[in-house]
Amino acid sequence: MTTQSRPNILKAIGIEKAFYTPEKVHILRGINLEVNRGDTVAITGRSGQGKSTLLQVLGTLETPCEGTLEIAQKTVRSTTKSIIRNKHIAFIFQSFHLLEDYTALENVLMPARIARQDVSVGAPAYKRGIELLEQVGLSDRLYFHTKVLSGGEKQRVAIARALCNDPDLILADEPSGNLDKLTSKAIHELLMNFVKKGDKSLIVVTHDPELAGMCTTEYNLSDGLLHQMR
Predict the structure, then answer these.
(1) Residues 58-61: contacts with CB within 8 Å, 24+ apart?
(2) Going along 133-190, which residue ranges are E strands?
(3) CA distances from 104 to 15, 31, 80, 201 (A)
(4) Apex 210 CA angle, 204 and 212, nearest 5
(5) Which domains does the chain have, with CATH numbers?
């Protein structure tokens, strides 16, 4: 399928964002971005330029002051954003945000539980949770509480959890920022393989030139605008 024939999964037009406390700070100034199914997009830039804010706006966690956002060719509105987010978007953060007194499998199944799917033993969601943990190399950690896992293992659980409900778009904010180089490389390859095999899309905020280089497109965010680097 050519780039032109692939449907877009995200389209942002004229996105602006400002904060007003204690004084007005204009973070995003007319962001335009289109991401097609199968694209991997890196967003780089100096700290404090608004990369994480942009990711939160694109993920409908923050509301822009101006502009329009479409996800899966549906316009995001205040009345529909939670439905669109839950159906189409998954998040991976630098901090894993796992429930540490729950097992790896219980954490992975949490999105399915929130979506009121059957997560009992043998149910389709339960089987998918096991399959995802196997795919990230944690088949021997299914029933371990996540508090005893290493940092790399926790991030693998977080990736499996993000993919539990089969999202179209993965948004990752410094997904390997706290990990050593070898573990980071494995996490990067996992993300790229999931996108490629599942025909998903990925937008990743990163300071890591290696991860940025693995993406099909790279933008630099500075002075509130996205500048395409390649």
Answers:
(1) 58/10, 58/12, 58/33, 58/171, 58/203, 59/85, 59/89, 59/91, 59/171, 60/84, 60/85, 60/89, 61/85
(2) 169-173
(3) 37, 37, 31, 25
(4) 30
(5) 38-64+79-228 (3.40.50.300)
pLDDT of residue 24: 83
CB-count exposure of residue 44 (10 Å: 0-12, 13-18, 19+): buried
Count, residues in the chain: 230
Q: Which of 67, 48, 47 is nearest to 58 (CA)?
A: 67
**Nearest alpha carbon to residue 131 among 160, 90, 88, 89:** 160
pLDDT in tens, 96-133: 899 999 999 999 999 999 889 999 999 999 999 999 99
Beta strands 40-44 and 201-205: pairing type?
parallel
Supply angle C-alpha 56, 7, 60, rounded to 5: 15
- Which residue reads 């490629």 in tokens? 196
